[in-house]
Amino acid sequence: MDLTLPETYLEGAVLFIDKPLNWTSFDVVNKIRKSLRQQLGIRKIKVGHAGTLDPLATGLVIICTGGATKKISQYQDLEKVYRARITLGATTPSFDLETAVDHLYSWEHITGPMVEKAMEGFTGEQDQLPPLYSAKSVEGKRAYESARKGETLELKPHRINISRLDLLEFEPPHLSVCVECSKGTYIRALARDLGKALGSGAHLTGLRRTRIGPYHVEDSISLENFLNKLKLL
User: Fold this and answer.
1) For 100-128, how does the pLDDT look when each residue is reduced to its tens digit (9 = 90+)?
2) In the 8-state DSSP scheme, what is residue 97?
3) So which residues are the catalytic ones?
4) What's the rounded Cα separation, in Å, for the pair 228 and 233?
5) Does 157 reside within a domain?
6) d(CA 195, CA 199)
7) Residues 28 and 114 in one domain
8) pLDDT tens for residues 26-75?
9) Which of 34, 108, 112, 143 could form an S-S bond across to 136 if both were Cys, CB 3.0 to 4.6 Å?
């Protein structure tokens, strides 16, 4: 696949983008779609992504253009790997830094061995309750739209699989973990549940997706660099 040829994007290109902080996955799709239309001098081109990343997360996003959009589901079904930073002793409504802290908890009793022991309970197949601040569809609306308006929602747990969960670093009240999991897994929800399991509270304070199936973030390109390359077509 030669990304220097304009026709490649119409026929179908698969792009591995390192999503920047504070961009939604839809922002990245829209920016690439708009740039392709401008650079190729066309009115329409299909562009889609294979798996959402929250605005406060960075890392690998797979973008498909043209005919390659038919393969999006194949990429969506692949296992994902994340590096996550979790802060103990406080919770937020969104389970991350999107919203302000709403409750404080003691965390001084938590030790490294306690964290590792609690993490053992989160490996394997399990039911996970999605965050209210999520893209889950409830009665035709995105859950986060209703949550931001203060509306009451009832989300149902869904089946996920966490095949691997490793503690990388523990500097109380912060810890870093590596998560290898199935599609549909919310790392923010994992942070919430881990805090509860440790007799405290917790929220996600950093997230980076490092791998999707066999595709690594090290082999991706920043959005800025990709857009600069488009200008050379």
Assistant:
1) 999 999 999 999 999 999 999 999 999 99
2) T
3) 54
4) 10
5) yes
6) 7
7) no
8) 999 999 999 999 999 999 999 999 999 999 999 999 999 999 999 999 99
9) 143
Looking at the fold, whether 10 and 61 belong to one and the same domain comes out as: yes
> Tell me, what CATH number does 179's domain have?
3.30.2350.10
Identify whether residues 104 and 114 lie together within a single domain: yes
**What residues contact residue 202 under an 8 Å CB cut-off, 6+ apart?**
86, 87, 88, 89, 90, 91, 191, 192, 194, 195, 196
Indicate whether 92 and 197 sit together in one domain.
yes
Residue 153 CA neighbour count, 13 Å, CB half: 27
CB 179 within 8 Å of CB 82:
yes
Amino acid letter, residue 120: E
Q: Does residue 225 lie in a domain region?
A: yes
pTM: 0.91
Cα(167)–Cα(80) distance, integer angstroms: 17
Is residue 47, in this structure, part of any structural domain at all?
A: yes
Name every residue whose Cβ is closer than 8 Å to that of residue 120 and which is 6 or more positions away in sequence: none
Q: Which residues contact 38 (CB under 8 A, 6 or more apart)?
A: none
Whether residue 1 is contained in a domain is answered as: no
How many Å apart are CA 230 and CA 191, to the nearest integer?
38
